[in-house]
């Protein structure tokens, strides 16, 4: 409002006092229009602009230091400076007064932020480097702008909601000499506050060796025959990937990205070494360890379940491949769980009420291979009593007695059978109960818990085992050795925990399903180390120790690094040993003794890799001694144990095999629908550890191929017993054959299902 209009307004009010006219009467003006201010700012004060009526008095309340006001001009425009509350959200009310009447307020919210972000945290960088471009990564305030100065070009990027950032920075470089780049990395928040700088120094040196590639994430397990490895390296370098079934070659693009395909050796661990190569120079290696596995797990073994049951859910337990995902369908809802290191699993399954729940249980390994389904039918009958609740029990156990606990109705009598002798107990006033049960020694105990006088039972399986594993059988360890890391390998009880003491620190590992193990141990420099190796089974029984003495000497070349020192048995006449020498160079060969004949082969002078084919002694354990040779200097040996076996195993002994079909209203009737059934062999029915294949000849099943995962496949125990599921009706002819670890297949036999 101009001075003149203010005095005009005051004279109008004076006239009102003299009774001459009215002051402030009529409709108040509308709320002023305010131009959109920044939601977040570090300015203080800030100027608000907008439009009101011509010559109106505009007032702004809600900032710091009291109201601010100013006049609108003859066009109604206004610009008023307002002080803000520092580092807070300010709610400003903007009104106008015309002719003594004040409008409603327009609300404006502005957050003041005068605090600068902390200096960015920058991830470690490579320096010195051959590359004149490097990617910086780090963290700072979320949604801030990151600026980098000091290189050949300035760079900037935005952080994400978590404050992470990454950007490529072009560096000052010279074709001949090293150039030091001191980069300043700052963050500017949304309000415009700039942080202190984080200084990063990167030296570009063209005389350096080729940098090793950096690999992106890769699968630890896969069923694919070929894996694609991606990553970054120096722009334009060649990429060489070795160590698989087939080598891969590629070129890094102008930005340093690469993609290389490598064939994998089937069903074993592949250590792929990836090198960058340029102008005859080879970098150190990036390593990718990938386990190829296209073999499906065996059908899961399910523990018995009471049926019919009044329970609305049941704890389904059993065993499968360690670390597999166990999925259950067919109940009221699907359920899944991962098996533990011993292959045991327990998954709670909701049942559909008052019907037959036909459950299908599938195990899927880390590579994505899925087993055939184990099937189990549980009838839920809500008219029955709820079963007695039994808490989870440790199994297997070396204890002769197990303490069962659980809950039931208050003050009821319970009976437990299936152990060494029946046990009676009672629940207390709260329904809790406990009972000490003696177990049948060194066997699987199927314990049945019931209320006295009731047919509803709960079944708990507890395996007793108080027999310690045999002392581990150790492969030869090269000694003396120039490496402070030695690999202790051999065989023990399947899935036993392996512990090695006597090195610089204890080392742990686990035997595979076939009993093979390998544990890397650090030994002291320039001294003799006596290592003690123990095996402990799942029940906690520990073997007597096996010992080996290893001497370290800095004067001895390291033994060759072999990709696989304990490969699976084979029925092939030859075996290719692959690996690398630790210190590549010209003129280094690899010699392998211990097979049917001495084998020799060269190493790659840049990468040190080798692949030497060895003729095997037939049907024997070939202890291959792998040494590197350069002139008269010979390294210690790395031992590779290859079992050759081309003899087919004996066919199953039908006198020790039983088969059973299932009958019922929905199976083997007029529809001829086959549901569950099984074939089981007693100890000695087949060779220990073989794969057993079962198929229904009557039903027209094709004879299974020698690959785990076929219908009715099972792995025999070390004692030669097995239990394989197969849909069958009484009277069906069931075919059986076995395959040993080397891939040899027996003749097939037939039994009749009862």
Largest sheet: 6 strands, mixed
Number of strands: 61
Instruction: Tell me, briefly, the overall form.
Output: flat
Q: Termini distance? A: 108 Å
Oligomer: single chain
Question: Could you list the spans in which at least 5 consecutive residues all have pLDDT below 50?
Answer: 1-24
Structure annotation, total helices: 1
How would you summarize the topology of this molecule?
Layout: H1 3-17, E1 33-34, E2 40-41, E3 46-51, E4 57-61, E5 68-71, E6 77-82, E7 89-98, E8 101-102, E9 106-112, E10 121-122, E11 133-139, E12 145-149, E13 155-158, E14 164-170, E15 179-188, E16 198-204, E17 214-215, E18 221-222, E19 226-232, E20 238-242, E21 248-251, E22 257-263, E23 269-278, E24 281-282, E25 286-292, E26 301-302, E27 313-319, E28 325-329, E29 335-338, E30 344-350, E31 355-364, E32 374-380, E33 389-390, E34 401-407, E35 413-417, E36 423-426, E37 432-438, E38 444-451, E39 457-463, E40 473-474, E41 485-491, E42 497-501, E43 507-510, E44 516-522, E45 528-536, E46 546-551, E47 561-562, E48 574-580, E49 589-593, E50 599-602, E51 609-615, E52 621-630, E53 633-634, E54 638-643, E55 657-661, E56 677-681, E57 691-696, E58 714-715, E59 722-725, E60 733-739, E61 749-752
Parallel strand pairs: 2-9, 18-25
Antiparallel strand pairs: 1-3, 3-6, 4-5, 4-7, 7-8, 7-9, 10-11, 11-14, 12-13, 12-15, 15-16, 17-19, 19-22, 20-21, 20-23, 23-24, 23-25, 26-27, 27-30, 28-29, 28-31, 31-32, 33-34, 34-37, 35-36, 35-38, 38-39, 40-41, 41-44, 42-43, 42-45, 45-46, 47-48, 48-51, 49-50, 49-52, 52-53, 52-54, 55-56, 56-59, ...
């Amino acid at each position: 409002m101009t001075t003149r209009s203010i005095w005009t307004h005051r004279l109008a009010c004076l006239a009102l006092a003299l009774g001459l006219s009215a002051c402030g009467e009529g409709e108040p003006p509308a709320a002023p229009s305010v131009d959109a201010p920044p939601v977040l700012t570090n300015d203080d004060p800030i100027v608000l602009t907008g439009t009101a009526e011509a010559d109106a008095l505009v007032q702004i309340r809600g900032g710091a230091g009291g109201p601010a006001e100013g006049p609108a001009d003859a066009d109604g425009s206004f610009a008023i400076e307002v002080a803000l509350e520092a580092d807070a959200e300010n709610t400003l009310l903007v009104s106008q007064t015309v002719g003594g009447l004040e409008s409603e307020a327009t609300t404006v919210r502005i957050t003041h932020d005068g605090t600068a972000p902390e200096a960015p945290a920058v991830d470690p960088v490579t320096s010195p480097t051959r590359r004149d471009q490097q990617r910086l990564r780090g963290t700072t305030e979320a949604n801030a702008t990151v600026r980098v100065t000091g290189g050949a070009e300035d760079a900037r990027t935005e952080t994400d909601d978590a404050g992470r950032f990454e950007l490529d920075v072009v560096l000052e470089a010279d074709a001949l000499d090293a150039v030091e780049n001191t980069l300043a990395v700052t963050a500017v928040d949304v309000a415009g506050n700039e942080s202190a700088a984080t200084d990063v120094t990167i030296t570009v040196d063209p005389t350096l060796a080729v940098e090793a590639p950096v690999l992106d994430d890769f699968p630890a397990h896969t069923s694919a025959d070929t894996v694609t490895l991606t990553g970054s390296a120096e722009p334009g370098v060649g990429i060489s990937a070795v160590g698989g079934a087939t080598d891969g070659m590629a070129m890094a693009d102008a930005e340093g990205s690469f993609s290389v395909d490598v064939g994998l050796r089937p069903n074993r661990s592949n250590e792929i070494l990836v090198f960058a190569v340029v102008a005859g120079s080879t970098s150190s290696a990036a390593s990718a360890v990938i386990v190829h596995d296209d073999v499906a797990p065996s059908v899961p073994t399910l523990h018995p379940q009471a049926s019919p049951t009044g329970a609305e859910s049941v704890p389904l337990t059993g065993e499968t491949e360690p670390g597999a995902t166990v999925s259950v369908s067919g109940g009221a809802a699907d359920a899944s769980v991962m098996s533990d290191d011993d292959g045991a699993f327990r998954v709670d399954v909701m049942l559909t009420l008052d019907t037959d729940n036909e459950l299908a249980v599938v195990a899927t390994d880390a590579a994505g291979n899925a087993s055939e389904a184990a099937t189990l039918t549980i009838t839920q009958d809500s008219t029955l009593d709820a079963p007695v609740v039994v808490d989870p029990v440790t199994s297997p156990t070396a204890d002769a007695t197990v303490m069962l606990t659980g809950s039931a109705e208050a003050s009821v009598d319970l009976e437990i059978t299936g152990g060494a002798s029946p046990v009676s107990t009672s629940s207390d006033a709260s329904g809790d109960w406990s009972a000490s049960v003696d177990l049948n020694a060194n066997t699987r105990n199927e314990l049945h818990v019931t209320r006295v006088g009731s047919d509803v039972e709960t079944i708990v399986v507890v395996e007793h085992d108080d027999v310690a594993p045999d002392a581990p059988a150790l492969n030869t360890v090269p000694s003396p050795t120039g490496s402070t890391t030695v690999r202790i390998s051999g065989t023990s009880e399947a899935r036993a925990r392996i512990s090695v003491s006597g090195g610089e620190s204890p080392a742990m590992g686990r035997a595979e399903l076939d009993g093979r193990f390998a544990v890397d141990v650090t030994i002291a420099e320039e001294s003799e180390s006596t290592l003690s190796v123990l095996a402990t089974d799942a029940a906690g029984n520990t073997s007597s120790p096996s010992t080996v003495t290893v001497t370290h000497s800095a004067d001895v070349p390291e033994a060759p690094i072999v990709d696989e020192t304990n490969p699976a048995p084979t029925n092939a006449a030859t075996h290719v040993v692959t690996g690398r020498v630790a210190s590549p160079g010209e003129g280094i060969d690899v010699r392998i003794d211990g097979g049917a004949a001495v084998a020799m082969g060269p190493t790659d002078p840049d990468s040190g890799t080798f692949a030497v084919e060895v003729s095997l002694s037939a049907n024997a354990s070939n202890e291959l001694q792998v040494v590197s040779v350069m002139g008269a200097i010979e390294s210690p040996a790395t031992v590779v144990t290859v079992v050759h076996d081309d003899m087919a195993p004996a066919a199953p002994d039908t006198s020790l095999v039983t088969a059973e079909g299932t009958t019922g209203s929905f199976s083997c009737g007029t529809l001829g629908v086959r549901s569950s059934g099984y074939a089981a062999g007693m100890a000695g029915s087949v060779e220990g550890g073989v794969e057993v294949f079962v198929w229904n000849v009557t039903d027209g099943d094709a004879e299974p191929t020698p690959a785990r995962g076929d219908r009715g496949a099972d792995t025999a125990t070390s004692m030669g017993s097995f239990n394989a599921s197969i849909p069958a009706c009484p009277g069906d002819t069931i075919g059986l054959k076995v395959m040993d670890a080397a891939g040899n297949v027996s003749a097939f036999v037939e039994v009749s299902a009862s």
